Amino acid sequence: MLDRAFDAAHLSDLQSHALRQQQVQEESDQLYIRLFDDVQRRILESQNQETIDQALDELVLALRARMMNSPELDWKAFVAMSRRHPITQLLHQDPFTFRAFSKPRGYAGDAEMMDFIYGCEDRLAPPPAERFGRYVFDYTTRAPAPEGVRARRAFMAARIDRLAEEKNRPHILAIAAGHLREASVSIAVRRRRTGRFVALDADPQAAVEVKRCYASYGVETVTASFSRLLVRQRGPGEFDLVYSTGLLDYLNQRTSRRLVSSMFQMLRSGGSLIVANFLPGIRDVGYMETFMDWNLIYRTRCEMIDLTADIPESDVKQISLVSEECKNIIFLQLTKS
Questions:
Q1: According to the model, what pLDDT value does residue 235 have?
Q2: Which of helix, strand or coil describes residue 111?
Q3: If DSSP codes are grouped into helix, strand and coil, which group holds residue 197?
Q4: What DSSP element (H or E) covers 7?
Q5: Where in the chain is the domain with CATH 3.40.50.150?
Q6: Mutual orientation of helices 2-45 and 131-140 as an angle, nearest 10°?
Q7: Cα 227 from chain centre
Q8: Cβ distance 63 to 284 under 8 Å?
Q9: Distances, alpha carbon 104 to alpha carbons 88, 110, 215, in Å
Q10: What are the backbone angles phi and psi of residue 101, rounded to the nearest 5°?
Q11: Which string of b and e fits 100-112 if b means at least 16 CB within 10 Å?
Q12: CA 48 from centre of chain
């Protein structure tokens, strides 16, 4: 009798707790709806970039806080609710946000989208957009994640240049190379101081652009998926540097570990492997997932080290982790014995 009474009371407490949680969730959702209303109004009424930047700063920080403090299912429900708000149509006037969301090549973060990020450094004309879309574009392409992408390119260009100083005409393989824009800022590439330089990517349109821009510097293209490398037979390494800077952000840990092992096998003795990945908790993460549908796999330093688990320790001469200057992206570097 007492047991049944206790069970009934416990069930009642659980139901009350669930109801309170639901009420808190609904109140939080209403706060965010009011935030969306306010940010939308401020953008539409604004006549300058600074005011819009302030409004978008508030939006980005609020979305990050909501994501970091939400269980996965609650976050997904919140994202779905947010996309029904009219602010989505306004933010999608930004070519950068909308390209990620619409995925014309089947995935966010394609090579054309990366060129939007590099444009402010390369003095490229921005893509066509309405007035408010241009304001949002200027903000989103200068946000921390794109800043990290630009720093990532500079890091790789500097690494290629240093390698060319240390070794005569080194052989290099870039995996998921996109448009290979690090070649644009690499002195070694421009002066043809590299040996064989192979840019591998599954996107044939990316290969066309690489040929157009860099074939005259000796870069060759291979149109193939990275998965082709996972079944590669063991043999002597061919390259002094094998790297991939944007691929692991989309691959699970098991596949990434296999890829890193395959890349390592392709190195000559003394050669280097470099892979990059976004770190967890970047400032833009909530906005990226909510309005860009740009969902990455973020890795801690420990998870990056774990990618080397299948490589015999005796084969590794040196291993290091370093983040780029913005501390949004981390590089794993391995040197082969």
A1: 63
A2: helix
A3: strand
A4: helix 2-45
A5: 145-283+296-336
A6: 120
A7: 19
A8: no
A9: 18, 9, 26
A10: -70, -40
A11: bbeeebeebbbbb
A12: 29
For residue 217, the 8-state DSSP code is: G
pLDDT at 15 over 60: no
Class for the domain spanning 145-283+296-336: alpha beta
Residue spans of alpha helices (H) in the chain: 2-45, 49-68, 72-83, 87-91, 95-102, 111-122, 131-140, 144-166, 187-190, 204-214, 227-230, 253-265, 285-291, 301-306
Contact between 141 and 122 (Cβ < 8 Å)? no
Question: Each residue of 149-207: pLDDT tens digit?
Answer: 999 999 999 999 999 999 999 999 999 999 999 999 999 999 999 999 999 999 999 99
The residues, ordered by sequence, that sit 6+ positions from 88 with a Cβ below 8 Å of its Cβ are: 82, 291
Residue 277 · residue 328 · CB < 8 Å: no
Are 139 and 59 in contact by the 8 Å Cβ rule? The answer is no
Per-residue pLDDT tens for 276-335?
Answer: 999 999 999 999 999 999 999 999 999 999 999 999 999 999 999 999 888 999 999 999
Angle at 209 (CA atoms; ends 205, 214), nearest 5 degrees: 145
112: three-class secondary structure by DSSP: helix
Partners of 332 in the beta sheet?
275, 321
In the predicted structure, residue 33 carries a pLDDT above the cut 90: yes
Give 27's pLDDT tier (boundaries 50, 70, 90): confident
Q: What is the mean pLDDT of residues 241-263?
A: 97
Rounded to whole angstroms, how far apart are CA atoms 204 and 178? 10
